[in-house]
Write a structure and sequence with these properties.
- The structure is a single chain.
- The protein is of the alpha/beta class.
- The chain has helices at 26-36, 60-67, 77-90, 110-113, 119-125, 134-148, 200-208, 214-223, 226-231, 236-244, 248-272, 283-287, 289-296, 308-313, 335-347; strands spanning 2-6, 12-17, 42-46, 56-57, 96-100, 156-162, 166-172, 175-179, 277-281, 318-319, 328-330.
- The protein folds into 2 domains: 2-100, Nucleotidyltransferase, domain 5 (2-Layer Sandwich), CATH 3.30.420; 134-335, ATPase, nucleotide binding domain (Nucleotidyltransferase, domain 5), CATH 3.30.420.40.
- The chain contains 15 helices and 11 strands.
- A 6-stranded mixed β-sheet has the order 8-7-6-9-11-10, with helices on both faces. The chain has a 3-stranded mixed β-sheet with strand order 3-5-4, with helices on both faces. Strands 1-2 form a two-stranded antiparallel sheet.
- Helix 1 packs across helix 3 (77-90) and helix 10 (236-244) crosses helix 11 (248-272).
- The model has no long low-confidence stretch (mean pLDDT 95).
Length: 349
Amino acid sequence: MKLRLLDEEDRLVARRDLAAGGPVGEEELAAALEDLGPADAVGHRVVHGGRRTAAARLDEGLVAELTALADLAPLHQPPALAAMAVTSAVLPDVPAVACFDTAFHTTLPAAAATYAVPADWRNRWDLHRYGFHGLSHAWAARRAAELTGRSAAVLRVVTCHLGAGASLAAVAGGRSIDTTMGFTPLEGLVMATRSGSVDPGLLLWLQTHGGLAADEVADALEHRSGIRALAGTADLAEVVAGAEQGDADATLALDVYAHRARAGVAAMVAALGGVDVLVITGGAGEASPQVRAALVGGLGFLGLALDPQRNADAEPDAEIGVTGAVPVYVVAAREDLQIAGEVRAVLVT
């Protein structure tokens, strides 16, 4: 759990990271908030905001609405709701705003958002592609405009959020027009413990012929798939190190990961009709030159190529592409800055 205190100029004043692995207790969070110092407002990152198109002030009605969405993002929504409850108890007089990862993708055109399933299903359960990591993608696209010195209104940007969860987005004129995650955060790229996209027929077969219950399949896809299933560890840094030492499982895991990611980048470029900037962010994307090289390698036909020395030496935010090719940047994930801006938009009149 990441806590950041920003001042009125968005300068980082204080930070605290609380250990993952379970709900954060009120005493631990209260102590962390006290260490950070006084705040005028609280912004919460919320993975699933349903159809909401913008951040909203937190109240009982909104909490109930977000609770009803918990089964669509089971890894993220319950801990976020728990943190809201604790923070509200610790800071009862401080206004709180929920900022949604899904909101950025509410601009997806129908062609990108619609599943080809029966209309009565789509209408009854509002089945469509929501997309996620929107706060990170929004910041990365905004930062790309700043780094290139060009207006966001004219840029075609592919943003790559590569962390424990991973997704891509196609951003045209500052608006998301395609992304790899869908109705839930399971769709799309191979991730640390999540499978990414698999043949739906495979899942049906596992239940009808393999004898697996739905909850068994769900648990495996969320917690025991992805990099962990291929390499025996969910730590991509360990996988990279293993691949460099010739470990067959690690090599396969990295190859599968990169293969799916490269295909996804090409799909995002197709949605944009070309690409002006590629941005790589997220924990793995920022930390690993090998991951960045595996992603961009083979995409020369799109005008993308990395400078090996720039890539090896890069510290976010930095350009790592070959001079004369499509610019490629590695950018620090700053959801905190995106959240701060959205909080001000809700509370400051």
